[in-house]
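Question:
Now give any protein.
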Amino acid sequence: MAWKTLDDIDLAEKVVLVRVDINVPVEAGRVTDATRIEKIVPTIKDILAKGGKPVLLAHFGRPKGERNPDLSLAQLVPALETALGAHVTFAADCIGGPAKTAVAGMQPGEVVLLENTRFHAGEEKNDAELSASMAALGEVYVNDAFSASHRAHSSTVGIAHVLPAVAGRLMAAELKALESALGKPERPVVAVVGGAKVSTKLELLGNLVSKVDHLVIGGGMANTFLVAQKFDVGKSLAEHDMAETAAEILAKAEDSGCTIHLPIDVVIAQEFKAGAESQTVPADACPPDAMILDAGPETVAAIKKVFDRSKTLIWNGPLGAFEIAPFDAATNEAAAHAAELTRAGKLISVAGGGDTVAALNKAGVAKDFSYISTAGGAFLEWMEGKTLPGVAALMT
């Protein structure tokens, strides 16, 4: 992949339209987790340092093309000013008079935040007229929102075809990390895929078995693969109607030279609640009245050995019901081992997806992975081998 970055373009005195993802959680008008805001800081500060005038484009929630005061970006201004250490002027629209006035009045060192792009129905349709109206506000376009780049919207694709377009620091870091993990990885490559359902990750699994050397399957979807092997999984979460599909994936993996690793032993309980009485049994010995809620210690030991033999790790999804102890043990132990190998320089580790980030944060090891993607759908579509429209628009 080839894309331009902030280092490849002159920004002095230029109005720079920056697509960011600041779709952060807000309660009572206050940002409760500013992680996504903090991640855009390097890009904005670099633009300012190069003499550019950053104008931020972003979506917030799902207003479905209508103005909704509860989804106004105005409520993010205090958190943005704190993170950036700069004055942020808010414009009540992303096109037209309010936007033009705010941009025209920009002072050196100032940042402008335009209103929610999704207040316009044309945004999600990649409407050419809307794209042109937004592009008319600036001279350069920077996409720093990998997590929104799986959507062909006006603010992620349309503007990139009108103005000179480059990747921001966050976008460039994400693309570099992903390229090193699946594009041209150091081998052997191991992927960990967890989650509730096989049906939601069919394309992902189908792509990975032809790209990686080892595939570790955990979470609820592992139960479906156990069903495919004619194991009884009791009351466990499993898609019995997907057992044949799971068997086909196992066969495809064998043909591709990919080794799939399923649970050897499992942690079971009568109910899913904190402190529930649990026990470890072989994967083929789940009683009819019990449910599988985590991978067992033998499974974790086997996974750690695979990590030891690998050079690159891609992780999406937990190995068990990590939200509640003691069913977080497998995820925590395997993640800690991956973090240890990463710190020692023996493993490149890239992880992403909502539950994955939450699980690694809960395990206290997220900071030790080579790269953690905050993207959800975009990260999954990249793992599925799909071309992301917002990324394709930056390719040279």
Notes: Residues 185-383 form a domain with the Rossmann fold fold (CATH 3.40.50.1260). The chain has a mean pLDDT of 95.
